[in-house]
Task: inverse folding
């Protein structure tokens, strides 16, 4: 089997990439999806709030996915469901398996990685105690409730204030469960402000900042948790322990880009994002292999995932049809003070149209700040902001003219407190 | 029980059936076993499998919802070479006899074993003296291939170990395997050969009758001529129901880290430190599935069902493990667990017929090296049975092999293709982290001693053991279990009865 572009993962990133690649006049495209339908995790996100940027209206997850799936079908883009990619070789041979075709090897001129992310587990954050049933990652609970139609418990505690956890606090309350509280290790929430208001405050669910679970109790089913306040080094403070009875614990303690396949193709990964290092065209360290969406870095809004997917799709098409001009000059982006990461990590000016959008997250909560963009030591852009929180992704657009005509190779973004 | 009557009635005239029932009832039970084995851990399952070679009616009883649910699922997963135990003890005898027996049993039961060898590393003169002592013990215990090597040679073989290592005892016969896979395989093979497995039966009392024992569980009564006590940390309790010669078992908790496969090759051999008073110290060991295991600590506890991990214990393990290898990647943890060793007051395995209870055989206090000793212990218990009962009659049709376990991940491309053609379910990957297919899951459910729980599937076919810990595949596994067992998904439990996963339908799920 030979294709021009093979897209691995039929979630929002992959779908947008496929549509854009097709519109850019590449015909021979295949989407490989491991689940039973296209749409990825959106299919279990039945709440609304999707699409405000992309479609200027509020949609549910499945509705948002449907708009892209409709386009995929309209454009007659080929896709395989229930198909799992086992390996990607460095010369772009994809081995995959499904029930119908068996074991297949697919040769691709270009590959777009859009596998998304997975949730961090109890093991990853090391909560001591017993190993009873009733402990779910928030996304797994969401799947049971929204896709299978089953409830996971009656008296629920949630650890971590990531967006899925917040959304699930509301969902479970609406299903008649009692949500005892949401505990967050950090002094601020990792979720969107609107979710804290709409999912916790509106339902009187307490958000316990700077708290963590130090013990899980219960032999067969979870019976309770022991919560403790933590100090500024995130260590439990003795004497602050409090026991909560519950029959269910939900974990919303972070997402990890799923890059097992990227590793099989020997791509260079970024230690901070956990995703592949990409350039302005969303191309990875291996020529012709692109990546987009949560497999690159975890996004806050699906709208931006789609935007990034389009960028990857358009550039994969360009790679297949004409190739890139290989640059003499590559600018490296670098996180300065207060910035945790920046995507893309590399910019080749020749391949930019008019501007480049940098995606980034801060490392803490900041208020009344200025974002400084520096080329070498020279400040080329200053943006005033009221607040910046790690839970919300920041986008900074830089005009190509600001980057031209200098020999400096490093683009630094940093946070400056106003008045400094 | 219905099945039991039916089978036994076959030899009688139907007209006499009423009399038969009366005769059974007079004997004190409806159904008489020759041997009842209490505890379906590796020891109980091994004994059941070895006794299933003979014409005996055997019950393998466990309080839990699956076999291998106690210490056999939570230990260091090592087949020890056998230099450690004091010469002359049961531990030394059965370990040295047991170790070489694993190749055959693993081959028969299609269980993977890898003899990767082990080091006991020493940091100073005192340690080197200990190592010298272990070497001498090893020679007395007839352990082959032992060698004391210097620090440079150790680091040559294990470059990630610390520079502070002075020397080590090398034991090439040390091996690794999955202890629960072995136990499950033994139970399955025993059941293939006629052993009845009675799960969720917690023994509450045992009464001695003239010709037999009456075992009273929370579910039923079981009559058996002989009772074999393999109840792990509960073996003292079981013994005390029958015998006045008591011993005491203290659970000694040991906690472990399981690290991600990406660091599974941190070491290639089993890395012990010099033994402490309370165990063999913290080890670093690759698992047969390619993860890295770090642990255990040792803490004597009171409750026999307390397998909770603790922050202090886990912190201690990290600290001690760093003595062996400063860079041990404990940040790559995917899960932690703890197991309970059965520390017995006599200090050595208690194996034999109770003096004051004929036909009641203790196989108790089987702490480390219990797994390593299990084949030799099982063989010895068969000999005890022969002594007590006279010669045992061998079955014509004993089958030492169990049906091959298909591991999709390990097949060649041609084999994979053929398999999917025959059964398309092998083309559907359910567990993304470990590449486990629906075909494999269906297969391990539909066997004797098959999986009935999510953890049972996990232990037999590995979905959920990877880095996502069942986040993606958990609901799919529950769905497959429900379908194969003809249950509603809400009836599927994680592990024991009471470990329910779902609490019913949502308002829209009705």
Result:
């Amino acid at each position: 089997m030979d294709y021009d572009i093979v897209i691995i993962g039929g979630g929002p990133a992959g779908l947008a990439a496929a549509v854009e690649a097709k519109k850019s006049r590449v015909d021979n495209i295949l989407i490989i999806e491991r689940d039973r339908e296209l749409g990825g995790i959106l299919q279990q996100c039945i709440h609304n709030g999707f699409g405000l940027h992309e479609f200027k209206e509020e949609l549910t997850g499945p509705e948002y996915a449907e708009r892209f799936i409709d386009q995929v079908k309209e454009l007659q883009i080929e896709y395989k469901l229930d198909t799992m990619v086992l390996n990607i070789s460095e010369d772009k041979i994809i081995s995959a398996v499904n029930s119908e075709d068996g074991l297949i090897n697919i040769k691709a001129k270009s590959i777009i990685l859009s596998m998304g992310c997975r949730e961090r587990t109890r093991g990853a954050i090391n909560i001591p105690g017993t190993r009873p049933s009733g402990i779910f990652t928030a996304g797994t609970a969401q799947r049971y409730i929204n896709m299978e139609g089953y409830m996971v418990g009656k008296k629920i505690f949630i650890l971590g204030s990531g967006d899925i956890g917040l959304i699930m606090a509301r969902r479970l309350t609406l299903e008649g469960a009692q949500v005892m509280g949401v505990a967050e290790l950090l002094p601020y929430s990792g979720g969107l402000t609107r979710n804290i208001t709409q999912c916790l405050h509106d339902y009187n669910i307490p958000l316990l900042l700077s708290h963590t679970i130090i013990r899980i109790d219960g032999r067969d089913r979870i019976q309770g948790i022991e919560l403790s306040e933590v100090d500024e080094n995130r260590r439990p403070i003795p004497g602050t322990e409090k026991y909560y009875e519950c029959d269910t614990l939900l974990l919303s303690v972070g997402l990890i880009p799923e890059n097992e396949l990227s590793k099989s193709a020997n791509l260079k990964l970024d230690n901070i994002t956990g995703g592949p290092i990409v350039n302005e065209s969303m191309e990875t360290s291996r020529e012709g292999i692109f990546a987009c969406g949560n497999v690159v870095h975890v996004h806050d809004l699906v709208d931006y995932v789609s935007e990034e997917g389009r960028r990857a799709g358009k550039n994969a098409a360009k790679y297949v049809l004409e190739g890139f001009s290989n640059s003499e000059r590559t600018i490296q982006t670098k996180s300065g003070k207060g910035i945790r990461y920046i995507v893309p990590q590399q910019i080749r000016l020749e391949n930019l149209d008019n501007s480049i959008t940098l995606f980034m997250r801060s490392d803490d909560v900041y208020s009344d700040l200025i974002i400084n963009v520096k080329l070498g030591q020279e400040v080329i852009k200053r943006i005033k902001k009221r607040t910046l929180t790690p839970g919300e992704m920041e986008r900074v657009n830089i005009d190509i003219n600001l980057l031209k005509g200098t020999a400096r190779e490093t683009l630094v973004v940093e946070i400056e407190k106003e008045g400094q | 029980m219905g099945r039991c009557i039916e089978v036994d009635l076959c030899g009688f005239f139907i007209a006499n059936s009423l009399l038969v029932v009366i005769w059974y009832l007079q004997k004190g039970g409806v159904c008489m076993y020759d041997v009842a084995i209490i505890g379906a851990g590796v020891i109980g399952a091994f004994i059941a499998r070895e006794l299933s070679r003979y014409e005996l009616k055997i019950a393998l009883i466990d309080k839990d919802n699956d076999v291998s649910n106690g210490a056999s699922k939570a230990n260091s997963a090592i087949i020890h070479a056998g230099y450690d135990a004091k010469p002359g003890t049961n531990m030394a005898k059965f370990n040295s006899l047991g170790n070489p027996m694993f190749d055959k049993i693993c081959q028969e039961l299609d269980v993977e074993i890898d003899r990767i060898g082990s080091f006991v590393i020493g940091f100073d003169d005192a340690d080197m003296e200990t190592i010298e002592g272990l070497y001498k013990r090893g020679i007395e215990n007839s352990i082959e291939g032992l060698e004391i090597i210097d620090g440079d040679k150790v680091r040559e073989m294990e470059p990630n170990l610390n520079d502070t290592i002075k020397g080590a005892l090398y034991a090439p016969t040390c091996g690794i395997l999955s202890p629960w896979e072995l136990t499950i395989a033994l139970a399955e093979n025993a059941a293939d050969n006629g052993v009845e497995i009675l799960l969720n039966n917690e023994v509450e009392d045992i009464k001695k009758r003239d010709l037999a024992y009456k075992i009273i569980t929370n579910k039923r009564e079981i009559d058996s001529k002989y009772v074999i006590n393999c109840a792990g940390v509960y073996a003292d309790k079981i013994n005390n129901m029958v015998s006045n010669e008591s011993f005491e078992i203290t659970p000694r908790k040991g906690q472990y880290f399981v690290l991600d496969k990406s660091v599974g090759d941190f070491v290639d051999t089993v890395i012990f430190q010099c033994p402490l008073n309370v165990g063999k110290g913290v080890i670093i060991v690759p698992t047969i599935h390619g993860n890295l295991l770090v642990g255990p600590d040792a803490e004597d506890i009171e409750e026999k069902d307390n397998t909770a991990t603790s922050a202090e214990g886990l912190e201690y393990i990290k600290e001690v493990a760093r003595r062996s290898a400063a860079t041990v990647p404990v940040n790559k943890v995917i899960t932690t667990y703890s197991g309970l060793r059965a520390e017995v007051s006599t200090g050595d395995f208690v194996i034999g017929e109770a003096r004051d209870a004929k036909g009641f055989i203790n196989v108790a206090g089987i702490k480390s090296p219990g797994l390593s000793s299990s084949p030799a212990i099982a063989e010895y218990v068969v000999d005890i049975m022969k002594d007590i009962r006279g010669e045992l009659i061998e079955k014509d049709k004993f089958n030492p092999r169990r049906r091959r376990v298909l591991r999709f991940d390990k097949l060649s491309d041609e084999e994979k293709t053929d398999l999917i053609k025959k059964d398309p379910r092998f083309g559907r990957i359910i567990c993304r982290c470990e590449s486990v297919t629906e075909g494999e899951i269906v297969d391990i459910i539909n066997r004797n001693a098959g999986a009935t729980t999510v953890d049972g599937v996990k232990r037999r076919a590995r979905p959920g053991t990877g880095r996502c810990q069942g986040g993606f595949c958990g609901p799919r596994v529950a769905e497959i279990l429900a379908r194969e067992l003809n249950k509603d998904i809400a009836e599927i439990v994680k592990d024991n009865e009471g470990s329910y996963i779902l609490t019913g339908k949502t308002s829209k799920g009705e």
Residues 329-420 of chain A form a domain with the Immunoglobulin-like fold (CATH 2.60.40.10). Chain A has a mean pLDDT of 94.
